[in-house]
Specification:
Structural class: mainly beta
Mean pLDDT: 95
Largest sheet: 4 strands, antiparallel
Shape: globular
Order of helices and strands: EEEEEEEE
Number of helices: 0
CATH topology: OB fold (Dihydrolipoamide Acetyltransferase, E2P)
Strand content: over 45%
Helix content: under 10%
Strand order of the largest sheet: 1-8-6-3
CATH superfamily: RNA polymerase II/Efflux pump adaptor protein, barrel-sandwich hybrid domain
Distance between the termini: 5 Å
CATH architecture: Beta Barrel
Number of strands: 8
Amino acid sequence: MTDIIIPNLGNEISEAEITEWLVETGDDVEQGDVVLLISTTKTSLEIEAPTSGKISQINSNEGDLVQVGEVVCTIE
């Protein structure tokens, strides 16, 4: 299993908002596929799948604030 975590977004940014999930539990993804969009007060980012597999768990909803380092999704 591989976790998708919120990456370090800079020294002064500790959280981001999930703006859109592009996958659902059970979806197959390839390494490099964009799986979710996040935004901060300074930027918006696409978060990619670090590996190929199936989305086994999504831990946060659109609109949720998540912390840097937080696991938001798991790929099997």
